[in-house]
Hints:
Order of helices and strands: EEEEHHE
Number of strands: 5
Low-confidence stretches: none
Radius of gyration: 11 Å
Shape: globular
Strand order of the largest sheet: 1-2-3-4-5
Helix content: 10-25%
Largest sheet: 5 strands, antiparallel
Strand content: 25-35%
Amino acid sequence: MERQVVGSKGIHWVRYDEDSQVLEVEYESSGAYRYFDVPLDVYEWLMKAKSKGKFVNRLVKGHYRYEQIADG
């Protein structure tokens, strides 16, 4: 998985592994998180979203199991 820096005020980078359906997001204020069982289309929509922070808040947080990544 390769980190992709995104032009977002609240998100520093994202990366996605299609095989395991794992989405990782590093937030500017709270560190990095790993979200499990995220379908590819959700990741594709995220990358096309004008506001990535709003997208994650509405369609990722609270919808997928997650863990904080200790090393970011």
